[in-house]
């Protein structure tokens, strides 16, 4: 049995910038008529929020912002975007198989991860820049302006089908709607945003952000617990309810705006039961769940693998996946991730680019050497960028523990994605299952 949460307190704060107090009061009256689906897996505990109240407030936010939002693109234009992205994916796979057969590993990307900004309004205990430094402590000089950022998207699109906008906190970047529109016009698919969601209600109230959700395919919200005291301490924020309320806002908007909503949960030794609560809530609400075992340096925290509570949670996640609940990734990928099985990491498949436009090569998280930092804007095509990068450091056989290797075994879903792709280079039929598990849900 999971233990009840202690030290409960009442959280009364209802400060919603740009949302009128009268609308909040109206929401309280509607709570029981427009309520959440009946919970069947999730069990509210001491310290958890009043979900009916949060949902009512979320509905009022949605009611106020919806008339301002641009609708999603549909029809032939949208299908052409997806087909162009699929064509890049297929061409890269064909090219990467040739590289694989020749013994090379400078594989062309599945997607690229772009740290748009280093700034963050949270200071999560577990989060750093993959090299032990907290994002709010990092220098922000050199951050690309809008024109430079758009040019970077053009260059990366020459060989990259998908983009993952990250941070810091990605939606602190005020020109993000311009960049998501540029990414859509360039036929990236899927366009993915990772956010803590704390200021979503403010952004959606801003007319400059009216196209943001229409131009986004997947919104990933970081959520590691439901106990408000635990979240306050973990994230170093006084207002964790904003994240939970905005998660409900995004859930309401997802079918209207045609984007997929996903929660990303970092499982830590002291929050295993809390992560289980998030799994149950996400499954009940039809939100896709993505588990992330916490790392210490370049490896999974050893305290997890020996904890029976974690092993039970891992089995529960896999069982839910088999039952058809929405858990991101294939069964094979999740089993390998959750049990920290040895992986075949191929980092060039998901290159990291910093806020100043520099590519970390071959790997942002390398322990035995500092990565080369290569300015993407100095090149017109990704092939030229990769050829230059390979001349500096050959990524072939870079993953490993030798002195000329990365020295890490990072237990991240993104690395197991490259492991799945490497497996599909040997067994092509595996590729479709991995792609399907990311782009489609079953329940």
Structure, explained:
The chain has 443 residues and is of the alpha/beta class. The chain has 15 helices and eleven strands. The protein has helices at residues 21-30, 51-65, 76-101, 146-157, 176-185, 200-204, 228-235, 241-257, 272-285, 302-305, 308-323, 331-338, 382-392, 413-426, 429-439; strands spanning 112-115, 163-166, 191-195, 218-222, 260-267, 288-293, 295-296, 299-300, 352-353, 358-361, 372-375. The strands form three sheets. It has a seven-stranded parallel beta sheet with strand order 6-5-4-3-2-1-9. Strand 3 (191-195), helix 6 (200-204) and strand 4 (218-222) form a beta-alpha-beta unit.
Q: What is shown here, in short?
A:
With 443 residues, the protein is of the alpha/beta class. The chain has 15 helices and eleven strands.
Count of DSSP strands: 11
Shape: globular
Major pleated sheet: 7 strands, parallel
| Terminal Cα span | 26 Å
Total helical elements = 15
- What ranges have pLDDT less than 50 throughout 5 or more consecutive residues? 1-34
Radius of gyration: 21 Å
Name the structural class: alpha/beta
Topology order in helix (H) and strand (E) letters: HHHEHEHEHEHHEHEEEHHHEEEHHH
**Amount of beta strand:** 5-15%
For the biggest β-sheet, the strand order reads 6-5-4-3-2-1-9
Relative helix content: 40-55%
Mean pLDDT: 87
